[in-house]
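Exam prep: given the inputs below (a chain plus zinc ion), describe the expected output before reading on.
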Amino acid sequence: MRLWCLFKHDWSDWRRNPNPPCEKSRYCKREGCDKTKTVDDHDWGQWHYKSPASCLQHRKCGRCHKTETGVTLHEWENWRYVALDSCWQTRKCQRCGKRKKFEQPHNWGEWEFTIPHSCMQERLCQKCGEQQKRNKHIWGTWEQASPESCRVIRFCRRCEERDVGGFIHTWHDAPESKGTPDSLLECSKCGYFEDN
Ligand SMILES: [Zn+2]
Ligand SMILES: [Zn+2]
Ligand SMILES: [Zn+2]
Ligand SMILES: [Zn+2]
Ligand SMILES: [Zn+2]
Ligand SMILES: [Zn+2]
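Solution:
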């Protein structure tokens, strides 16, 4: 290989090989460099459907008759609802018969309480009748669980469900630690303490 060929070969024109018929080659014209390059060179026809019932595209080489498969191109009908009272839509490919289904967003009615003294709510899709449920409590304010406890709880005003929260302590400096460098915080109500 010549020095110049490290950077760029001095390529000949492409020439089609006699066999196989759909290859072409070029070679470096510099003396002492035997570099050649061979690539496929088909005479591709237009992309077209492989058969009437298939949505696969293919094309064929006019010289060697090799075929190549391309993309799938469906001929979709318009979306339509599966039934009048359904939220599902479907469509069909007119060529190959493939179907697609898609669920449209439901047309939800309002949330409603359905059982007395229960916080269960229900809503219905006004088109297909699908049902959804949830719990919707109406919480009262946090209050102390008992006079000696700093734990807070709250109740649902509708179903009286109990929700247990955290602690709300009333901190003050512990008397024994007063005047020492390590102050100690103590709850004046329940006696719980913490190193500060
Ligand atoms: Zn070369
Ligand atoms: Zn070919
Ligand atoms: Zn199709
Ligand atoms: Zn629906
Ligand atoms: Zn409730
Ligand atoms: Zn406390």
